[in-house]
C-alpha cells in the first residue's frame, strides 16, 4: 500500500514566508513540515511515498532526495501548474498502483496513527474527520455510523487524511479539478466510510497557526 503527500499548493495565506520557500519546506521545530509526515508514514509501514509539487517544486525534490535517509522510497509527480487535489491525485495514479492508497495534505500536523489505515478499504474512500476548528465552524461532512454524507447534523471537518481507491477517479480526465465532487458522488452511492479522530490535529494554513504549532511542539 502506497501513500501520497499533497505538496503542490502555492501557500498564498502563508506569504511572505512562501515567496521563496514552498510551504512543505517551512520549518517547525527542527524539521521541515513535510518531514513530520514522511517520518510518521515510514513508522506506520508506508515506505513508498509519492509527493506531488508545483510551485518551487524543485526545492522539494532537491531537499528530500530519494528518501533514503528517511528509510523510504520517494517518488515525485511534478505538475508545473497546480492541478488541485483531484487533478493532482489523478495525475499521480500511475505511481500509486492499482489498489487503495493513503493521501495526506502536507499543510496539516497531527498525531493520527497512520498504521490504522493499512486495512482493506470498503467502498471508494475512507475519510478521517476531526472536530471543527475556529476557521471552519460549519464543518464539511456528516458522519453517521461510519458512513460519511454531504448533508446532516452534526458536521465535522475533513482532516486532509483519506484512503482512496483508483476507481474513484475512473471517469476523470487529465486537468485541474477538485476532489470534492468525486467524494460527493461516491457518498450519494454509499461508498464513503469515515471515522471521527479526536487526537491532535492542526491545519497549518497561516503564519499564526504555524507559530501555534511551533509552540505546541516545543511544549
UniProtKB/TrEMBL annotation:
SUPFAM superfamilies: Nucleotide-diphospho-sugar transferases. The keyword Protein transport does not apply. Gene3D superfamilies: Spore Coat Polysaccharide Biosynthesis Protein SpsA, Chain A. InterPro entries: GlmU-like, MurU, NTP_transferase_dom, Nucleotide-diphossugar_trans. Residues 3-117 form the Nucleotidyl transferase domain. Pfam families: NTP_transferase. The keyword Nucleotidyltransferase applies. Keywords: Nucleotidyltransferase, Transferase. PANTHER family: N-ACETYLMURAMATE ALPHA-1-PHOSPHATE URIDYLYLTRANSFERASE, NUCLEOTIDYL TRANSFERASE. This is Nucleotidyltransferase family protein. It comes from Candidatus Marithioploca araucensis.
Amino acid at each position: 500500500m502506497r501513500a501520497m503527500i499533497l505538496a503542490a499548493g502555492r501557500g498564498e495565506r502563508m506569504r511572505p514566508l512562501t515567496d521563496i520557500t514552498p510551504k512543505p519546506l517551512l520549518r517547525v521545530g527542527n524539521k521541515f513540515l513535510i518531514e513530520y509526515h514522511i517520518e510518521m508514514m515510514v513508522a506506520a509501514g508506508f515506505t513508498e511515498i509519492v509527493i506531488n509539487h508545483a510551485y518551487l517544486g524543485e526545492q522539494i525534490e532537491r531537499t528530500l532526495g530519494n528518501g533514503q535517509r528517511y528509510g523510504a522510497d520517494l517518488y515525485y509527480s511534478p505538475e508545473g501548474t497546480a492541478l488541485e487535489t483531484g487533478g493532482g491525485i489523478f495525475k499521480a495514479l500511475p505511481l500509486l498502483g492499482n489498489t487503495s492508497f493513503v493521501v495526506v495534505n502536507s499543510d496539516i500536523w497531527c498525531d493520527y496513527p497512520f498504521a490504522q489505515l493499512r486495512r482493506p478499504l470498503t467502498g471508494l474512500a475512507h475519510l478521517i474527520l476531526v472536530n471543527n476548528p475556529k476557521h471552519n465552524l460549519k464543518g464539511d461532512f456528516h458522519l453517521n455510523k461510519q458512513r460519511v454524507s454531504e448533508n446532516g447534523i452534526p458536521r465535522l471537518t475533513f482532516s486532509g487524511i483519506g484512503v482512496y481507491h483508483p476507481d474513484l477517479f475512473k471517469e476523470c480526465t487529465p486537468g485541474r479539478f477538485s476532489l470534492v465532487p468525486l467524494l460527493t458522488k461516491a457518498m450519494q452511492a454509499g461508498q464513503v466510510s469515515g471515522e471521527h479522530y479526536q487526537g491532535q490535529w492542526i491545519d497549518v494554513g497561516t503564519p499564526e497557526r504555524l507559530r501555534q504549532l511551533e509552540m505546541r511542539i516545543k511544549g
